[in-house]
Amino acid sequence: MASLILKPGREKSVLRRHPWIFSGAVERVDKEPASGATLDVLSFNGDFLARAAYSPLSQIRARVWTFDDEPIDADFFRKRIRSALAARRALHIADDSDALRLVHAESDGLPGLIVDRYADALVLQSLTAGSEFWKEIIADILLEQTGLKNIYERSDADVRELEGLTPHIGILRGTIPNFPLTITEHGLKFNINISEGHKTGFYLDQRANRQRARALAKDKDVLDCFCYTGGFTVNALAGGAKSVVSVDSSADALGLGRENVSLNGLPEPEWIEADIFQRLRKFRDERRSFDLIVLDPPKFAPTVSQVDRASRAYKDINLLAFKLLRPGGILFTFSCSGGVDANLFQKIVAGAALDANVDAQIAEHLSQAADHPVSLNFPEGAYLKGLVCHKTI
Ligand code: SAH
After folding, report:
1. pLDDT band with cut points at 50, 70 and 90 for residue 353
2. From ligand 1's centre to the CA of 341, what distance in Å?
3. One of 225, 227, 336, 389 is an active-site residue; which one?
4. How far is the CA of 190 from the centre of ligand 1 (A)?
5. Regarding the domain delimited by 74-181, which CATH topology (the fold level of the hierarchy) does it fall under?
6. Which CATH superfamily is domain 3-66 in?
7. Each residue's pLDDT tens digit, 93-102
8. Looking at the chain, which terminus has fewer C-beta neighbours within 10 angstroms, N or C?
C-alpha cells in the first residue's frame, strides 16, 4: 500500500481529525501512487492515522477520506453520500425549496466534492485530485441515491489549477436540462444558469439570510448591493418593500435578475449596472437614503495574503452603507472571504460605523445555510459571515 509518512511530531492535527495534510508535515511518500489515488497516512513511528487522497502538486499534499482502517471504494462513497443526504432530510433544510447543497466537501467527509441539487438536475463540482479520481463512481452513486437522472459538471473553479487539474464543464450523466432551470426557494421562483452562473449557478448559502431579509422588508426603501441574479431583491419585493434599488456590475446577472422578478409577478425594482464602490459614493453625493441595505460582495480575500486589501474594501462599502442608512435602518452585511474571520469582520464593520459617525448595534449574527454545514474538526468550513446591524435613532 502506498503510504505517506509524517515528520516526527506532525501527527497532532490528524489525531484531531483535521482532514488536510500539508506538504511541510510530510517526511516522505513510499510507493508513490497516481494523483488522486489513495494512500495510508502514517506517523513517523509507522502508526496508521488515516487513509487519504494524494495530491502530488498541491501544498495540501493529501486530504483524508477516513480516520478508520476501512477500504476506500464505491461502498465507502455510498455510505458518505447517504449520510450527507440523511443530514439534509433530518434538518428539514429546504421544505418549500427544491434547490439545496447535498454534499459540502470536507464538512461532509468528502474533501473536494460539491454537489448541488437544482430541481431535477444535480450539479457536481470536483475541486481536488481525490474527488477527480473517484468522480465517475461518485456520479453513479449520486444517481442511485437520489433517483435523479441528470448530472451537470461545473469543475471550473480556479483552485483546480493548484491540483494540476484543467477545467471541465459539461454533462456528466443524462441529458442537458432545459436552460435556464427554474428552482423554488422558500416558495419563490428563480431561473438558474448552471453552465455559466457563479459557483454552480446560485448562491444557495444565502437562502436563510434572504428569507430573513424578506421578513424585514415590509414598507422599506431597500438597496441591494451586489445583487447578482436578484436573490435578495426578489425576497425584499416579496416581503412588501416600498421600493428596491438593485446594483451589480454584471449585465448578465441583472438580465437574469429581471427574469426572476417577473417570474414571481413582482413589481420591477430599479436595476443599476455599476461598480458598487463608485455608485455608493454617487448615492451619498445625491443624498439618497435607504431603510434596509444589503451588502453581499464577492470574496475580497480568498486567502490570508489578501486580507489587508480586502479589509479596506469591506470597510469602504460598510462605511458608505452606514451613511446611506436612515436612522432606525437595517444593514445586512456579509463576507464570504476565507481569509477574514468572524472577529475581524466584526471589527471592520465596527470601524466603518465609527468612521461614519454612526451609532449601530448588532442585532443578529448570520452564517451559511444549514445545507452548508461545518464539521467541528474543520473550522475552515465556516466561510460566510453576516451581521444584521441596526442604526439607532
Ligand atoms: N446577493 C447575491 C449574490 C452576490 S454574488 C445572491 O443572493 O444571489 C456577488 C456579486 O457581486 C456578483 O454578482 C458580481 O457580479 C458582483 N460584483 C463583484 N464586484 C462588483 C463591483 N465592484 N460592483 C458591483 N458588483 C460587483
Report:
1. very high
2. 20
3. 336
4. 17
5. Transcription Regulator spoIIAA (3.30.750)
6. PUA domain (2.30.130.10)
7. 877 999 999 9
8. C
- Which atom of ligand 1 approaches the CA of 232 most closely? 7
Chain segment 124-180, per-residue pLDDT in tens: 999 999 999 999 999 999 999 999 999 999 999 999 999 999 999 999 999 976 778
Q: Which CATH architecture is the domain 203-391 placed in?
A: 3-Layer(aba) Sandwich (3.40)
Atom 10 of ligand 1, nearest CA residue = 226
Domain boundaries, the chain: 3-66, 74-181, 203-391
Interval between CA 249 and ligand 1 midpoint (Å): 7
Please determine, for residue 389, whether its predicted confidence score (pLDDT) is greater than 80.
Answer: yes
Three-state secondary structure string covering the chain: CCEEEECCCCCHHHHCCCCEEEHHHEEEEECCCCCCCEEEEECCCCCEEEEEEECCCCCEEEEEEECCCCCCCHHHHHHHHHHHHHHHHHCCCCCCCCEEEEEEHHHHCCCCEEEEEECCEEEEEECCHHHHHCHHHHHHHHHHHHCCCEEEEEECCHHHHHHCCCCEEEEEECCCCCCCEEEEECCEEEEECCCCCCCCCCCHHHHHHHHHHHHHCCCCEEEEECCCCCHHHHHHHHCCCCEEEEEECCHHHHHHHHHHHHHCCCCCCEEEECCHHHHHHHHHHCCCCEEEEEECCCCCCCCHHHHHHHHHHHHHHHHHHHHHEEEEEEEEEEECCCCCCHHHHHHHHHHHHHHCCCCEEEEEEEECCCCCCCCCCCHHHCCCEEEEEEECC
Q: Is 378 in the pocket of ligand 1 (CB under 6 A)?
A: no
- 336 is a catalytic site residue: yes
